Amino acid sequence: NINYLIILLVIILSCSIFEPDNESKNLVGTTWKLIEIRNSDNHLIFKTGSDWSYWIKFQEDGSALAKDACNDCSGNYTKDGENIDISLSCTESACSTPPPSLGYSYEINHSISYEIDSDKLKIKVFYSNFGERILIHKAID
After folding, report:
1. Whole-angstrom Cα distance, residue 74 to residue 91?
2. Max CA separation in the chain (angstroms)
3. pLDDT lower than 70: segments of the chain
4. 55-94 in b/e burial notation, b at 16+ Cβ within 10 A?
5. Coil, strand, or helix at residue 105?
6. Nearest 5°: CA angle at 104, between 31 and 36?
7. What is the reported pLDDT for 84?
8. What's the pLDDT tens digit per position in 26-40?
9. Collapsed DSSP state (helix, strand, coil) of residue 28
10. From CA 34, how far away is CA 124, in angstroms rounded?
C-alpha cells in the first residue's frame, strides 16, 4: 500500500511541476508595450521596431501612464467588462529623430474594448477616419 501512495504522490507532484504557465497577465499593474497595429481584417498596418517606445500601464486607481515615442503621457481609464475607455494627454516634445507617424496616444484615446490572452493585450479602437483597428501589446513586466 505504501508503494501506491508513493506512486500517487509522484504523479501529483509531476503534474503540478510540469504544468505549463498559461496564466494571463493582469490589465492593471502590467506594462504593455505596443508591438503592432492591425486592421479589422487582421492585415498588418504597423510593426514597432526598437527605435521608439510605445507602451501603457494601467494603475489600480483608474489612472494610466504611457509613452508615445519620446512623449510622456498620463490620464485615466474606465472599464466595464471587456469595454474600456482610455483618455490620455501627452507632452509634445520634439523628438531628436522624428518617429514614424503613428499617433499612438490618438489611437488609444479611441479605445472601445480590450482582450487579454496570456501575455498579449489587444485594445480595439474605432474612429471614423480609419474604422476599427487593433493595437496589440506584449507584457514586458
Report:
1. 9
2. 75
3. 1-23, 98, 100-102
4. bbbbeeeeebebbbbbbebebebebeeeebebebebeeee
5. helix
6. 70
7. 97
8. 999 999 999 999 999
9. strand
10. 13
Site of grid cell 490620464: 75
Q: What is the rounded CA–CA span in Å between residue 34 and residue 49?
A: 10
Amino acid, res. 130: F
Burial class (CB in 10 A: 0-12, 13-18, 19+), 140: middle
Q: What is the DSSP letter of 3?
A: H
Cα(85)–Cα(126) distance, integer angstroms? 11
C-alpha cell at 125: 479602437
Task: Compute CA distances 90 → 33, 66, 121, whole Å.
Answer: 17, 8, 21
Rounded to 5 degrees, what are φ and ψ at 107? Answer: -65, -45
Query: Under a CB-based contact definition with an 8 Å cutoff, are residues 46 and 104 in contact?
Result: no
In the chain the first and final C-alpha atoms are separated, in Å, by 47
